[in-house]
Design goal:
Layout lengths: L2 H58 L13 E3 L4 E7 L4 H19 L3 E7 L12 H14 L3 H10 L11 H10 L4 H8 L4 H13 L7 E4 L2 E2 L10 H12 L1
Parallel strand pairs: 2-3
Antiparallel strand pairs: 1-3, 2-4, 4-5
Helix pairs in contact: 2-8, 3-4, 3-5, 3-6, 3-7, 5-6
Length: 247
């Protein structure tokens, strides 16, 4: 092969190598474009699914028309001092607080000294062996409030409070207790259909957003009240604090 032929062959190899490199770059570019496109589409699909799930969840929240404080509580009484109580029906300490203070609170209501706002939260759903008793009980109480029987049902639930880490009361038992205070078919349907379960989650989220993390949480005119050791207040401390707040 002459020198000129060798030069032309070498030139052709260089050209072929350049074409191959260009082709590889083109394939790489289009592959990258395709990957980005797939990721964008996947992201859009995920966003749409998330949006739809959010809308679906929101649409399931049924807020009792009688609820106060942005739809998170039920008011009892008409006094000038606001007493906010955050409780969980599975909470044994809440039961202790009610045993100690219920009579005092009812007397303060009767004397028109306080407006009590009951916020029934569900922070102990994991203490009922998967039955979500806290949510179910709070949802049942919501329907009782809607039918004008909140205090009666509140009292009967604490009178029959199940042990923590048990399965809690069944829906049938919740309905039975409702009947004992004058609640009927509408109440039973709400319990069976879980009408207010999503609402209970909203109330619980609000509880957390307000910086609270334990029950019972007692708040008088916007200020959390505890004893000197950080425990829930006694009935005597509660009465004194209300009196001081009333002026």
């Amino acid at each position: 092969m002459s020198k000129s032929q060798r030069d032309r062959a070498a030139a052709r190899r260089i050209v072929e190598q350049q074409k191959a490199a260009a082709k590889r770059r083109q394939v790489t570019i289009w592959t990258s474009v395709a990957v980005v496109a797939v990721l964008v589409i996947a992201g859009l699909i995920g966003f749409v699914v998330y949006s739809n799930q959010t809308k679906t969840t929101s649409s399931k929240v049924v807020t009792p028309s009688v609820a106060v404080d942005s739809g998170t509580a039920f008011a009892v009484g008409t006094g000038p001092v606001t007493l906010d109580l955050y409780e969980d029906f599975m909470c044994p300490i809440c039961h202790e607080f009610e045993t100690d203070s219920a009579a005092t609170i009812k007397q303060l209501v009767a004397d028109k000294k306080v407006t009590v706002r009951y916020h029934m939260v569900a922070i102990l759903d994991d203490r009922s062996q998967g039955t979500k008793y806290s949510t179910r009980a709070a949802g049942a109480a919501a329907e009782a409030a809607q039918e004008g029987k909140f205090q009666e049902y509140f009292d009967v639930l604490y009178a029959n409070q199940p042990e923590e880490n048990s399965t809690g009361l069944s829906d049938a038992k919740l309905i039975e207790l409702g009947k004992s205070v004058g609640l009927g078919d509408t109440f039973a349907n709400a319990v069976n259909n879980k009408t207010y379960d999503a609402w209970v989650a909203t109330v619980t989220d609000t509880f957390s957003a307000r910086g609270f993390n334990g029950t019972p949480t007692v708040v008088v005119n916007g200020k959390q009240l505890t004893d000197a050791n950080g425990n829930p207040p006694t009935h005597d401390l509660l009465a004194k604090t209300v009196a001081a707040a009333a002026g």
